[in-house]
Structure formats: C-alpha cells, structure tokens
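Review session, final week

We close the course with one last complete record, chosen because it touches almost every idea we covered. It is YfhO family protein, a protein from Extibacter muris with 839 residues. Go through it on your own first, then we will talk.
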Amino acid sequence: MKRMQKLKAKATKNREDILYLSILIIIPLILYILKTRNGYLAGSEIDWLGQHIVFPDYFRKLFYETGTLFPQFAAELGGGQNIYNFAYYGLFNPLYLLSYMLPFIKMATYIQAVAVLEHIADGILCYYWLGRGHFRRRESFYASVMLVLAASVTYHSSMQLMFVNYMPFLLLALIGYDRYCENGKYGLLTVSVLCMILTSFYFAVGGLAALFIYGACGYRHEKGTSVWGMIKWFWYRYYPALLGCLLSLFYLVPVYFAMSAGRTGHAAQSLKELLVPDIRLHKLLYSGYGMGLSVAALILLCTSIFYRRCREKFMAATLFLLLLFPVFDWLLNGALYLRDKAFIPFLPLMCWLAASFFYRIGSRLLRAREAVGGCVLAGVLLTVSLLTNTYVRQEQYFIYIDFAVCAAAIAISMFCWKKAVSTAMLAVMAMLCVGQVAVLKEELVTKAEMDRIDSPDIGKAVESVQGGGSYRTETRGGYSANKANQNKVWVCGQNLTTVYSSISNPYYISFRSKVLHLSKPSRNSLMADTVDNPVFLKIMGVRYIVGSRAPDGYEKINQYGDVNIYENNDVAPSAYVTDQIMTEEDFLTLSWPERQLAMLSTAVADTKEAADEIKERAAEVDVHMSASRIKGSASSGILTVDNDGEEDAYLFLEFDVKNNKASKDVTVAVNGEQNKLSADNAAYYNANTTFHYTSLLSAGENEVPVEYGSGDYEISNVRGWIGRADEKETRDLYGSPVSLDVAGAGDVLEGTARSGKGGWLVTSIPYDENFRLYVDGRQEKIHKVNTAFIGAPLEEGIHEVRLVYQAKGRTAGIAGTLAALGILGADIIRRKRRLHGKI
C-alpha cells in the first residue's frame, strides 16, 4: 500500500514537472512568434544587426580563412585592429564556437535560434535550481516564470544579447555550487564559471558577485568560530569558482590590455555621486536596462528584510544595499560609469527571494508584521523615488496601480486565496511583456530589410574585386544599410575603414575625429561611420564601392543583379614607400582643410628632418546657407558658394549647431553627406556641436543641396574653404606601392618594398605598439606616420617587409591558464588520493 502511494505521489510530481516545464518552454516560443510575426526577425536594427550577428559571422569567417581558434589581429575591421577589441561580442563564446561546425547556417538564423534556446534554458535551469531540495515545485515554477518574463530577459534576447546570454551558465554555476556543497564535486561549478566569463566577461562580474552572495548568505556562524575558520570556510566554498576564473586568463588578460588601450573615456564620478543613496525604480522595475520586474518584486525584497534571521533576510539586505548605493553600481560596471544593466545578473537571487516569499505565504508562515513592514517600506521607497526623479505621468499612475494591486494580493493571499500574489505579479509581468513586444516591433529588423542588406549579389560583387591586400572595399546603401554594414565583412581581405565597437584603436578614432574632422552621420559616439569624404577614402585606399550608390570620384565598372560595383583608380594603396615627407610638428599647425589637402601630396612622419615650406592650399570663400534657424519639420535648402574656379576642387565646410530641443537629434546633410548631433539623453552622446563636411565641387559650381532634419536648432559661424590638390604630386606619392598580404594565422602582413632613393614605408594600418616590424629579417622600430598609422624609414633598395602582431597579454594569459590547469590537475589527484585513504 505504501509503495502504491509512493508511486502515485511520484507520478503526480512527474506530471507537475511536465506541465511546468512545458509552460516554461512555451512562453519563450510565444514571445518569439509575437516578435517575428508579420515579417520581422527577432533582432534590433542597430546593435543586433550591426554587431551581434556580424561579429560572430566575422570570427567564423576568420577561422575558415586562417584555421586558428585563437586569432590576434582583425585586419578587416577599423583599418586593422587588435581582435580583442571585439572580444565582448563573442570571440570565445562557447555557443558561438559551435557554429563553426555549421557553415551552411546563416549566422543571423543561428543567433536567433541560440537566443530562443537560451531563453528557454533560463526558465528550465531556474526551475531545476530552485526545486533542487530548496522549494516546492509550485513556488519554483512561479519564480522561474518571473525570470522568463523579466523585461531585461525578453528585451535583450533580441537587442543587446550579451546582457543576458550568460544567464544559463550563471544558473548552472548556482546549481554547481549546490552540488559541490552536497557531494564535493565541483566540475560543473568550475566549467560554468569559465563559460560564463567566455560568454560575457562584462556581466560575469555581476554573475560572480551573485554567486558569492548566494553562498555567503548560506553561511552559518557557529559560536567560537575564529576569523581564520571563516576564511577557511569561504576558501573551501569558492576556490572551484576561482579556478574557473583562472582558466579564463588566456582570454581575460589580453582583453584587459585591449580595454586599457582602447576604451573611450567616461566622465569621472564624484565621491558624492557614489555614496549618496540613489532611489531610482528602473534599477529593479519595468526597464529592460535594469532587472525589469514589477512592483511585487520590490515588495517581496522589502518584506524579506523583515524576516527573522535566515538566508533570505541576509540576501535581501545585501541586494537592497547594492541597489541603494551607486558605488556598487559603479564597481559592477568596471568603474566605468553608472548603468542599471549591471544589476541584471542578480535576477536569479530575486527569483530565490520570490520562491521563498511564495512558500511562506502558501504555508501560512509569513507573519502579518513582516508583510506590513515590507509594504510600508516599499511604499516609502516608491513615494520618495517618484518625488525625487522624473517619470512620465502615465508611468506614475501605473506604478501606483501596480503597488495597490500587489499589496491587495498579498492581503488576499494571507487570509483567503494563497495564489493571489503570485497570480497578480505574473499577470502584471505578462501584460508588461506583451506591451514591450508590441513597442519593440519598431526597433526590429524586417525580413525584407534583411534580404536587401544580406543579398547574395552583394557578396558576389565584393568577392569579384578581391585581389590581395593592396586596397579596400566597402559596401554602401541608405543610412540604415550603412550602419548595418559598419562591421559587416563579406570576404576576408575586404578591409573596412568602419567599425562600431565599445573598444577601438584610439589613434585611429582620433585621426578621424580630431585630425581630419570627418562627418558624424550617427548619434552614437562609438561608431566610426561610413563617410563620403573623398580625401579620407583616397588616403585609406578605398578603391571599390559596392552598392546602390557611390560618392563622387567613383565610376561604375560592373553589376551583379541590382548591386553596382564602383571603382576609383586614384586611391592610395594600403602601403607604399615615399620620400615626400612632412614633419608631424608642421602638419599639426595646419587648419583641418589644409591637413586634408596636405595628405594628398605628402606623408606625415615623426621625423626631425626639415621640410619644404608649406604652401597654403585652402582659400576661405564666402558661403551662405538658405536657413539659419530651423523649427519644425524637415526641409530642403541650398548652400551658395563663391566658386569661380575653372577646375574641380574640394569644398570644406563647417558650422556650429545649437540644439534648442535637447531631447531630439539634429541632422543636416550637405551634398549628401550627413552630420548628426545626438540628443543630450543619448547613451553615447556624440558631442558633435560643430558639423564638418568635405565634398567635391565641379568647376564653376556654386550651389550645393542641403537637407535640414526636423527639430528646433540654430546654425551659426558658417565657414567654407576651397582647395585643390596637385594630381602629379598625388601620383608620385603613391608611385611605389607595397602589397602586404595576410599570412600565418592572420596576424602577419608581409610583402616586398622597393625604395628607390630611400624613404618611408607608409601604411593605412592604425598604429599599435603590439606590432613588430622586420625588414630583411631584422627587427626595426615602428613609427607613427600620418599621425595614426604604422610606418618606418627604409634605406635605398628592395626589402622584404614583415609586420607581426602580438596581442599584449596573450602570452601571459595563456601561461596563467596553463598554471590553472596544473593546479586543477593537482587538486583532482589530491582529492582522489584522499578519497582512497592515501593522504
């Protein structure tokens, strides 16, 4: 009889598991269907399209090209950069590495599938973790649904993938920690920590903090325990996780050095900003850039603080302090800035508190004073936040309603219907989730747009013009297509000048923005955009343009379907030898128009040799814009230029922009070249308050079209210059090209240089101290040429040139990983011997 009862109980539990797991699988699938219905993809137009699918696709192409899983140099991005500048986007993500075995699957399809599977895994693993001897199935299920419906998880499964794609490994680490505490086996814990770091090193900081808090809150202090005893306890509990960190040193060390060299600066935080409590609700509620929960989460967090001494009390108090004081936000963000995204890794701990809360209510263990205290504290925090921060009126009303519903549901749960609070919380979150998906549609990529951007004809056209590493090829389309193509590499050897990454070569970025003053078409300061500047395209060696249009100076030479191929034969090779040299000191005294013109006839080097007298090449002319104050909708106008020259020339234009409506971007296009000043509230404000333009002007042409974007802004201090370059000097400058071909594992560039009279090797590869230059087998010092690129003086004769890139910290990182493997092996042997009684 007892056996039958046990079998019946087991069957009931199995049915519950099947039901709950089915729901946890169905919810992400429904959300995916809602996102993709009516011709959409589950990915955003900017970051997903421009970063999260193209970087993994490039890494895969690079693997096929070089055969190595450990590349060091990305020749195809941003002129050629340290590949660890882009490690954040999945360089060693174990799930992306699996795609290397699936070349027949498009990366966009693969990434969408992985995102859905990760979303499903979040719910299943959370359910397993919470139900693994901690809570009953029902409470574990409710808390797991809370994770699956969290705005941060649903939003970033289609937006910023790295914000949430580590979550399955974090949950596995929590499961692994429990397993280690139970039976001493730590393999799952160590491997999960390693995979979490390799998947998203940035959010692994918060993930490791969550793991530490989870374990530390379970520590039971016994009377008489010494400080040394506590240290030993913590060491024993966490050294397996530390081993996972040490195993990732081959990745973390070069990433650290790349970040140190290439991360753009951020405003320093004052001590007051870091220490004064910050009661902003979006850290915890609603926002996809915070945890993305409902008011019920705040109430259960506050209620947990009033529990008697237990694990949940300490966990809630710790999370409360983390959310309250900005210094923790700053530390979790790597001491870079204050961003709510750093709290997303603590979602599993909130799920733990939720499961405990539901269990206490369901078991009638929640005391009235605990519930009242939690609701009062939550109400005070909501009121203070609403009074001290700015929220739209509709959001304020929703917060009040959400609070009232949750408080009432708690009262009902305590005295009548036990499931009221869980039902209310999940209903609110489901409603928010559906609303979020509806709003998200505006940011998603359509299948039609993806087909245009990813047309096979573009790939065929790009491949048809690849003939070595001497020149670059870029793809063009409309504004949205250009943004999508900033990191899009169709064929290895394409060698883009564009890049969109949180880390980039600082010399190259400075060259674009401070030396040449290139236009800034996008609102994001991290984007090194596609530009139409004819001088920049020439000195960077962009010979081929593939797409629907090309800047002035290019001629159509071929066509694949609807895709045109344009060519400019007069651009610089990617490397050449010249004796036409100007000192950097003299060059930097020139105005920005004169700098651009000077670079068409001379190279700039850090030499002390005297230069010829610099001739003024750009003459200031009268220019007039048809409008100086724009208020309202977009409009068209004319720029008049005093140009009576009988030859084609370059027009250089600049003017200041004052944005009277700071919450809106300002956009002005001159002769098709666009500049944008981002709104003050932009995440990466571009500070582009002075617009610069460079374009070709035909002989006698004195009118240029202008497109004014909508908004309320003023244009002032309009200045224009006209200049002409000596075509013979330009041809002479590029007269001795050097073809540097990629060799080895993609981190070697080699070729033959011919120096007739002795001169300088000049490249358009951004300067990086990690390069080693070998001339005829002898190592030579690399120099900076043209203020931002690699070069070196050469003696007369024919030379074999070899550039070798060695990412800083890679060797030390590999050594650290090997040492960690040795420690791991020794510990495994020690544990086995102890198990068999040999120690």
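Two points worth writing down before the exam:
The two ends are 48 Å apart (CA to CA).
Residues 18-52+92-263+270-442 form one domain.
Good luck, everyone.
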